[in-house]
Write a structure and sequence with these properties.
The structure holds two protein chains of two kinds.
Chain A: H1 3-38, E1 41-42, E2 50-51, H2 55-60, H3 64-95, H4 102-114, H5 117-127, H6 134-141, H7 156-181, H8 185-193, H9 198-209, H10 211-226, H11 230-235, H12 247-256, H13 261-288
Antiparallel strand pairs in A: 1-2
Helix pairs in contact in A: 3-4, 3-7, 3-10, 3-12, 4-7, 7-10, 10-13, 12-13
Chain B: H1 2-19, H2 21-29, H3 34-38, H4 50-58, H5 61-92, H6 98-106, H7 113-126, H8 134-140, H9 144-155, H10 159-167, H11 172-183, H12 185-201, H13 204-209, H14 218-228, H15 235-267
Helix pairs in contact in B: 4-15, 5-6, 5-8, 5-9, 5-12, 5-14, 9-12, 10-11, 12-15, 14-15
Classes of the chains: A mainly alpha, B mainly alpha.
Chain lengths: 295, 268
Amino acid sequence: MGVYNKKKHAALAYLFFLPFGVLLIVFKLVPFANSIRMVFYKWDILGTPQFIGFANFTRMFSDKVFLSSLWHTFYFVILVVPPIMVLSFLIAILANSKAYAKGFVRSAFYLPYTLTISVVCLTWSLLYNPYFGLISKFTKSLGLKTINWLVDPFWAMPAVAITTIWWTIGFCVVLYIAGLQQIPSSYYEAAELDGANSFKKMIFITIPLLKRVHVLVIVTQIIASLQIFGQVYIMTAGGPAGKTRTVIQYIYEQGFRYFRMGYAQSMAFVLFLIMLIFAYFQLRLMISSSKEELI
Amino acid sequence: MKAKKYLLTVVAIALSLAYLIPLIWMFLASFQSQKDILAGKWIPSVWSLDNYKIILQRAKISAWFTNSLISSSLATLGIIVVCTLAAYAVSRMNFPGRKFLYILSLTGFMIPSQAIAIPLYLMVRRIGLVNNLFGIILPALPSSMAVFILSQFMKAIPSDYEEAARLDGAGELDIMFKVILPMSVPAIITVAVLHFTWVWNDFFWPLIVMTNEKMYTLPVGLVALAGSDVNIRYGPIMAANVMASLPVIIAYLFMQRYLTRGVVLSLR
């Protein structure tokens, strides 16, 4: 390539990148810069923003509702992530087993994930209904006490978590299946020659070799669960008595019902910092392997 | 051995069907009268389309459906154009600052949409895009995930193809449009399916940016509808759920391969 061509080549490259670059700056980076600036202001939707230093943060950490919503968010993460990990692993084992109809099994467990959150939550709200819902009919048939799931202060959050697990498990199943398929069968054959049974093969080959997938599932599910909003907005509206109010639900209330934009953004910033830790791990995992391999 | 395989198949199918019970119930309930639902029936005593009629008459569901369809389609199309160009530049071209622009294009990963929702809303409001489909479309366009998937894929195409085309006298644009892009079609479809479902299913952002009932997207509209009237919450809402889900389920059955592949690609 001549000098002229090289210049032309570079100019073309910048031209190709330009639309993306401009949109990235306008709709991601500028709002991000503003999101940091806003935390130092009393910023109502009308009127002039007022600089107040760190007052939003001191207010936040003495705001009992915020602290409880932070705890509810962590509680939700704890309720969702371990079960989703174990269950999606087991389902993936089943969907990758020697059974027939594996395609059907995979589709069945992935299908809910393609549905919009509203469909999922509106349907489950009826399933949880204590008078005619399928779930209370089922518990009644087992002779258990009927629970008013979404109204009971103890059970509301587990109910939201169960719905979330049902909705999103397909994502993790797909990851585990992809990981399982990359384990060379020679490993199992060698173990069989040494007399290992299925249980031993699972403990000593499958689980350790999928280490990268375990980490991916944990990190992506923690990030997703920290952002929980739609499920509680639709199914419980943060109730009963604020027991399912999560951070984003509270941000939504403060920002878009009371229009306390600066205060709401400060809470969003704190959540962002928490998520950043996990996003960092995710990015490192993604960049570390540009190969086709998951394990 | 064979018997074991059959047993395993039966267990697998039984578990899969059990998993789909909420969806099966939703489908059956959409044909039931309120009386049937309240009685906890499975099979409708009379198969009736009344719930569908109620929804189609009373709600703006067709407007919401159109809003969702337009915003998801245009956003997907825009993402393909904008992100393919950027991915091509950072993965197949040599120029000063290439590495920097690649890292820059991935910064979106570190900025979750909720973290910038409030300043973004204030900006979208200022430029008059509240209650406008472009308020959903434009912020969706700079997708780091799309650039990541596409550039990883393009990077893996051996440069032999490019050099052979160059020897045949192909110009810069010929190489792009006749060599690299046609070979990247699987990745492009994966990105399209992934982003279409993301925009279609998004709830938080449309809830904020669409305040006029006519401009709701389907997910926001359904929730508003269910909250508007106690009587509509049972059969009619289940009918609306079925209508909202069928296109996605059908699309999924056809695009399954690309979607599941996209999940893996997006995290590899």
